[in-house]
Specification:
about 375 residues, 6 helices
Length: about 375
Amino acid sequence: MANWDELPEELVIEIGERVGRYDDFESVAEVSSHWKSSLRSTSYCGRSPQVPWLMLPAVEDENIDKASTTSLRFYSLSKRMIHHQCTMPMKINDVRCYSSNGWLLMVSRYLSMSLYNPFSGRQIPLPDKTSLGDHDVFDDTNDDDDDCKDMFAQFVQKCALSSSPSSGIDDFSVMIIYGKFSRLAIWSVGDNAWTRVEAAGHMFKGAFLDITCFQGDFYAVDCECRVLAVACTRSKPGMGEITKTPIKANVVVDVSRFCPEFVIPYLVESGNKLLVVPRSFANEDSLKFSVLEVNVSNGEAQEVNDLGNMALFLGDNHSMSIEASTRNGCKANCIYLADDSVHCRLECFKEEKRFAIYNLSDSSVEHCYAGEMCSRFTSSLWIEPRH
C-alpha cells in the first residue's frame, strides 16, 4: 500500500492546486499531517470562482464565555454543513468584521484595523483612525458605555479590496465606508495613512452605502442612489507620507428614478457588468429587491428582470456574484442575503428577512441557513474561501 506521507511536498502542492473547490482542498489537506503542513503555505484561489461561505456567530457552548472565545465557524452551501472553524487573532467581542476577496477587515474595540485571512491565518496591519480626521470619527473620549458600543459597531460599515492579497501583498488597495457620516477612504500598499475621498464640487448630498471594485476601479453608491467613480491616484509604495489632499469622486450614473422612496442600494459586479441592487423597505413585512444594470461610460441604466445563471451575495460583505450550478449548491437568478447590519440587528428583524434566498423570478423567499444566527459579538456575512 502506498505511503501518502512519502509524496514530495511539491507534488502535494500541485495536487492541492488542481482541486476545484476550497471545500475539497481542506479535505485533501486532512490526508496527513505532512499534506496539511505542505498545503498550509499554498495560496489557494481555485480554478473557478469559489462559492461564498456564510460566517456564523461565535460557537454556542454553555461552558464557554462567548465574550472570550476566539472561534469562528463557516457554513458551506456546497456541502450543506459547517465545514470550517478558525481561530481569530483576538477575542470575538473585541472585533467587528467585514469581508472582501476572501479576507476579513477587522476593526478592534480601540479602532485599530487589519486584514485577516481566516483560512490561512495571515494578517496585514492597516493604518488606524488617526489619518481619517477627528470630525469623521465617533467621540472615543466619551465614557458612556452605549456611545462606545455605537462607535465600535459603526465605525466601519463596508470594505472592498481591489484584489486579493493571497497571492502577494505588493499591489492592492482597500476602500472603506467609515465614520458617523459614512464617508469613503482608501489605503494602498506602501501608504502609512488612509486617504479620504470627497465628492467633486457640491454633488455630495448623503452618506455612502456600498462600494465595489469594478474592472480595476473603485465605485460607490450613496443614499441618493447615485453611483460615483473614484479617481484613485495611487501613491508610490514606500513614500511614507500622509496624504492630506482627498481623492475626488464623481457621479457617473444616477438611478434614483428607478428606486422607491426608501431603499438600501448594493453595488455588485456580475458577468463583467456593474449592477445596482436596491432593497426596498416600502413594505416592512416583505423582502423585495430590484436589479439595475448601469453603464459607467455613458451614464445610462436599465432594469434587469433576470440574472440568468448568476447568483448574487449581499450583506455586510463586499457584494459578489457567482455562476450557479447544481454542483456548487447555488440557485440561479437568486439573491443570497446575509443582512447583519447594525440597524437590522438592533431592530431584531425576522431572520427570514435577514438571512434569506430571494428568487428574482417570483419574489419568493426561503431560508439560506436554519441554525442560530443571532450574536451580540460577531457579524454574519458572506466570504469567499481563499487560502
